[in-house]
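protien #1 (seq + structre)
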Amino acid sequence: MNATIEYEGQTLSYSILTNKRLKHLSIHIHPKRGVIVKNPGFSQEKVHALVKGKAHWIASKLTVMENRLWLKPLFEEEGKTLYLGEAILLHVNQNPEQFYKEKTPLHVNELVKKWAFIMGVTPKSITFRKTKRRWGSCSHKAELSFTLSLAQLPCEVMEYIVIHELAHILHPHHQRAFWACVAEYMPEYKIQEMAIKRYSPMLS
């Protein structure tokens, strides 16, 4: 079911997906499907009231989504991909996945080596895979995993991702001690957190 609300002169459309097995009413912003409300069975009036109350948050998220640099349309429309924050033409018969399989490990492995030494930590392993949302992760066994498309990011943003995940070896949470650790090695990390919102790890 589709519906709309008015917010500051613009019409915001959303879809309602009803599933009575859900426990909570929630709003999700999908890059292709737009605003989706997952509804456990509440009335349309209650759903509409929730969406209206979250209109500012929805509008801001949609603006971020619209301004985001997406790899798939960039390649399909212009034959380009992002490399270290810049749009570049790919060679004939090369696609973004092949490109990042070559470039991302080169940059990330060097950054991990550099910062692991500085921070005094030892990751057990480093792997790369395609992801839709996460740029990186660190398991409780100190196993690092990074999205395959990480080399699309500017150098300082990629460096932040590496420091972030290495800090999790010391602090496996996002509490104050973790952020203090990140700030120790990258005092301007909040700037990089803002910058990363322009990008998406999605390859397709």
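ok now protien #2
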Amino acid sequence: MSVQHRLIDYRDGDVLLEGRLSYDAAIDGPRPGVLVSHTIAGRGPLEESKADRLAEQGYTAFALDLYGKGVRGKSLEENRALMDAQLADRAAMQRRLLVSLNTMRAQAEVDESRCAAIGFCFGGLCVLDLARTGEDLAGVVSFHGLFGAPGNTIGNQVAAKVLVLHGWDDPMATPDAVNSLAVEMSAMGADWQVHAYGNTMHAFTNPAANDVDRGTVYDAGADRRSWQAMTNFFDELFGGNESQGETQ
């Protein structure tokens, strides 16, 4: 196994973005691609480590960038402003997500016909929005995501299978929000499922999360279980990812 990565510049209109591609160079030919959508903090070590881990499992993973090349907040408040600017125009955010997805699809290491997306926190909302657009994806996985509907996708049909991995005590996505998402996904014809982890808050996959007052707390058990749930989901989508083991 030889996981490598490269930075890729791409554009959404006049905005220059920079994503990071992870892949196992020992695998010959294209393999399923997984888009990795970042938290409020922008593309960073958390998303890159998840992308590398996916590459170890035989996928090609692309950690996208929604904020712009080199654009990162220096505080939670600055990060929230960056996120809020995206949320203020969900249609524009969805366009940027699709640009990111198509950038990944264009890479030689990616089988463009077999792609999925995962996201964390804000990124979880983003991949749900990708599904809401009706884009032809195999599936999306939201890890401790936000659920608020965008308002511009009513009447669309969801083509992607949807897996939501959720901390039941997440103050940013209450049980009422889970129920609303279920109603929305059913109305859009989605093949959806929710795995809820008890006594688990927001950001449960992030080892750096340790703020009980904000409700962002790492949980090793939920982290392990959710990754396994995603792995099982991808095995279903991609037939166990037969590209694994096809080495040079």
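The domain at 3-238 is CATH 3.40.50.1820 (Rossmann fold).
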